[in-house]
Input
Amino acid sequence: MDFSKEDIRHLGDLSKMKLSDEEIEHFQKEFTSIVGFIQTLDELDVSNVEPLYQLSGAQSRTGVDVVEQSVVAEDIRSQFPESTDDQHLIVRSVFSKSE
Output
């Protein structure tokens, strides 16, 4: 696939870059070369190659799920001296003057 100067100019506009004529010619050659290389990879026969999902060989560590008592809303509400209802807590600001 060959990139035209208009293609490169359009890509520059999309990326909000102002490209000089020299830069447009440079990127035109670069993009054409990159896409050409990728197209040669498409020609490879990989039908007998197993998919590779990771390279490091690291394995996932899984832990045992343990059901524990979660924080109860009443316990949280009891830590605040003032509340207007069950859903809104009034918290004194750190930056306000002490009363």
Q: What stands out?
A: The beta strands are 82-83, 89-90.
